[in-house]
Design a protein that fits this description.
Elements lengths: L2 H9 L9 H4 L4 E7 L4 H5 L9 H5 L5 H9 L5 E4 L5 H14 L5 E8 L4 H9 L22 E9 L5 E8 L3 E7 L5
Parallel strand pairs: 1-2, 1-3
Antiparallel strand pairs: 3-4, 4-5, 5-6
GO molecular function: 3-oxoacyl-[acyl-carrier-protein] synthase activity; fatty acid synthase activity; oxidoreductase activity
InterPro entries: Ketoacyl_synth_AS (IPR018201), Ketoacyl_synth_N (IPR014030), PKS_Beta-ketoAc_synthase_dom (IPR020841), PKS_NRPS_Biosynth_Enz (IPR050091), Thiolase-like (IPR016039)
GO cellular component, one term: cytoplasm
Length: 185
């Protein structure tokens, strides 16, 4: 399995937001993963003598959501979204609408970006796409800056029939918060 998949599987956090994974097993829980590249696939396929075939599925971006669904026995939609820089944003939107429209009772949304090779940043730099200041500023034409992150959102319908959101960021530290989205509906 590629590093993005391993980091995503190992980072999924339920306890801080008051959800027991065992209570979600077998439920109509959907999974959306925003992911836009797998540098590990190239590393796993460099030597034809060592190819086993598993790297083809283990590094496939399309399989990330399916791997989470299978591992945790979630029975709802399972979707990987790749729209480059906006992958996680679209995954958040799709998961939100799926719960809101009754397609699933809970939506787990993940976004992952793991950079393994300096050549990726070098290519973006040569195209003039990276920030000259080294910082990203919203609505500024200075350019982009890469970060490595795994995050999880959990949308669910609460007992009061409002939609609630829990957010967990997982890098070297974990930050979790819960808010009610009833005003957003």
């Amino acid at each position: 399995m590629c590093l993005s998949g391993r980091v995503t599987m190992n980072s999924i956090i339920f306890t801080p937001v008051g959800i027991s994974p065992s209570k979600l097993r077998g439920s109509n829980t959907g999974v959306w993963v925003g992911v836009s590249g797998s540098e590990a696939a190239e590393a796993f396929s460099n030597d034809p003598e060592t190819l086993l075939g598993y790297s083809m599925t283990g590094c496939q971006r399309a399989m990330l959501a399916n791997r989470l669904s299978y591992s945790f026995d979630f029975r709802g939609p399972s979707v990987a979204i790749d729209t480059a820089c906006s992958s996680s944003l679209l995954a958040m939107e799709d998961g939100f609408h799926a719960v809101r429209n009754g397609q699933c009772i809970t939506a787990i949304v993940a976004g992952v970006n793991v950079l393994l090779k300096p050549s990726t940043s070098l290519q973006f730099m040569r195209l003039g796409m990276l920030s000259q200041s080294g910082a990203c500023r919203t609505f500024d034409a200075d350019g982009k800056k890469f970060g490595q992150l795994v995050f999880f959102l959990l949308y669910k319908v609460s007992h009061s029939l409002s939609l609630s959101l829990s957010l967990c960021l997982s890098v070297s530290l974990s930050l979790c918060l819960s808010v009610s989205l009833s005003l957003c509906l």
